[in-house]
Give the backbone structure.
Amino acid sequence: MNLESPWNVYRTRFLVRARQLTEPLIFTDSFGREHSGRAGDYLVETCEGIRRITTRALFEDIYVPISETVCSPVGAEPKRPASEIRPQLTMQERTRATA
């Protein structure tokens, strides 16, 4: 696994950090459980620091990446200026816009 690759932040109901494996990985977690994954699977870390491996198909079906601008450190320059980010329209606003 390339330990130089950056962590990315994803969400379901919970925020997690994850990185995609570039080679097979086997490790034993702090609870004594063995985890193994293949290249393409994801190493997932919870906010409590618990790590596990999730298959690529399952991970990509469940997790949604969060924009880098949301997760940038405080004071970091966002990738896109705020003026370029359009707010989501409500259904009522969309209906009015197309009428």
Summary: Residues 69-87 have pLDDT under 50 and may be disordered.
